[in-house]
Each structure stands twice: as C-alpha cells, then as structure tokens.
Amino acid sequence: MRLHTTTDPTAITALAEPLLAADPVRNTVFSSIIAGLAAPDAEGWCAHPVDDPSVLAVRSQRHTPVTVTTGWLEPEPLAEAIAAQSPTALGGPVAVVEMLAAALDAHGLPAASRMDERLFRLDALAEPATVAGTARLAAAGDRMLLVDWYGAFAHDVFGGELPPGFDAETFLDRAMQRSRFWLWIDSAGRTAALAGRHPVAFGVARVGPVYTPPDLRGRGYGSAVTAAATRDVLADSAVPVLCTDLANPTSNKIYQQLGYYPVEDRARLAFS
C-alpha cells in the first residue's frame, strides 16, 4: 500500500468533509477537526491510500489526536507515517487502533495509556428525574470558571498528564466562539455542572464536554445539565451524539437513562 500525505488545510478539509457528510454520526469528530484546521495555528496532517481518499488518518493541530477511520486493512506504512509525526494520541474504531498499536510500538511510539470509548446517539430525550436548580447558557462572565473546569475535564480525560501544547484557556476561547455551554445552577445559586454542545454539522451535533466538580457529583446535576444541552441540540432539529469513557460506569448509565444508545466502540491511545 502506498500513501498520499498532505499538510495543506484546504486539501485536508476537502478530504474530511465528504466523510462527515456520508456518516455524520460515526464521523462526528471530523466537524471539530475541520474547525481546528481553520485556526491560525493549525498544523494539519493527513494520510490516505493513494487509491482510496475515503480512508483517512488526520489531525488538525500538533497536540490533537490523530484520528483514523475504518477501512485501514494493514498497519504499514501508516504506522511509520504516524510515528514520524510524534503525535500525542491516536483515536478511532477499536479494530483499527489495535491493529496499529503494535506497529507503532515497533516504530518507537509505545502507548502510555489506553482509553476505551463508546459513541452514543439519541433519537428522543427521556426526561431525567427532577433536580433542584435550573439550567442556563454560559455567558462571558463565566469564562474563568469554564477555563478551570475545561482544564479539570481534560485532566480527567488524559489521566492526569495533559498533552504537550494543551492550553485550557486557548481551547475554551475557541470553543466559545462556535459552541454553546450549558450550566446547572443549584438551589443555593452555585454553578454545579457543565455541558457543552457543538454546532450542527450535517444534521448532527455532539454534546460535550460534560463535567461536574468531584464534590458535587452524585446529585443528578450531570444528568440535568446534559439533558439541557441535549434539548438545545434537538431544538435545532439535529441528532445529539456523545462519547463516553467505558471505564466510567456512572456516566454510561446516566446517558442511557436519558435515551442515548450505543453506535460504535472506539479506542484512544496516549503517547508519552
């Protein structure tokens, strides 16, 4: 197999958009990749077999994961090409990620950790149990709290070691330009939980991040604020989707109670 690679953001976008349009649920992450390619500091990279531009490995910035699609049938020469990019992480369908893992190790890129994820979608919202408080959209005055929580969420996702180049403030500011963030305000007036929602792309919008501070967990705030973000997506006549960490049974349970159901299992490898 011979590869074609490019770092041209326009060319990468032209390759990614048809995949997003063809399956906007399974390829929902491509909406974020395309947005990242438009950033001033984008460092996009993409590889595909020379005879099949619908099978991709792509990233938008140096500190974001390389995302692989289905369709990769052999690890080489893709593993060599990915290793040469010194990525922080690799994500995609489980079978493809597992196929690449050993080959990447042989190229000097062993995985430091693995996260197993599940992609969910929702057709109709099952309203959660009543929780004291109310949801509201985040405003400019919430920015520093959101920065702190965005960093805490990333800390949880990356297992306590943030990838090189990650800056919560920069990520949050960019996200606020294109996404909406819902906050749950408890009965005492405290901001108790956060749920973001991405813009609609080909009829689908991803919910996330979802974060509740550790001392406020177990009170239903995460369910309530996720429901608020989900309603927001449904109000746009779009399909809500989200990804969960399979090692977190609580979040998987509450999302399914809201009506989300599994679509695909994915894996993410982090590299030291």
Please tell me about this protein's structure.
This protein is α+β, with helices and mostly antiparallel strands. It folds into 2 domains: 3-109; 122-266, Gcn5-related N-acetyltransferase (GNAT) (Aminopeptidase), CATH 3.40.630. The chain contains 8 helices and 12 strands. It has helices at 9-22, 29-37, 78-83, 94-106, 143-157, 168-178, 221-235, 249-257, and strands spanning 3-6, 45-49, 57-59, 66-68, 89-93, 111-122, 134-137, 180-185, 191-197, 204-211, 239-245, 260-271. It has a 12-stranded mixed β-sheet, with helices on both faces. The model has no long low-confidence stretch (mean pLDDT 94).
Could you give the topology of this structure?
Layout: E1 3-6, H1 9-22, H2 29-37, E2 45-49, E3 57-59, E4 66-68, H3 78-83, E5 89-93, H4 94-106, E6 111-122, E7 134-137, H5 143-157, H6 168-178, E8 180-185, E9 191-197, E10 204-211, H7 221-235, E11 239-245, H8 249-257, E12 260-271
Parallel strand pairs: 4-5, 10-11
Antiparallel strand pairs: 1-2, 2-3, 3-4, 5-12, 6-11, 6-12, 7-8, 8-9, 9-10
Helix pairs in contact: 1-2, 5-6
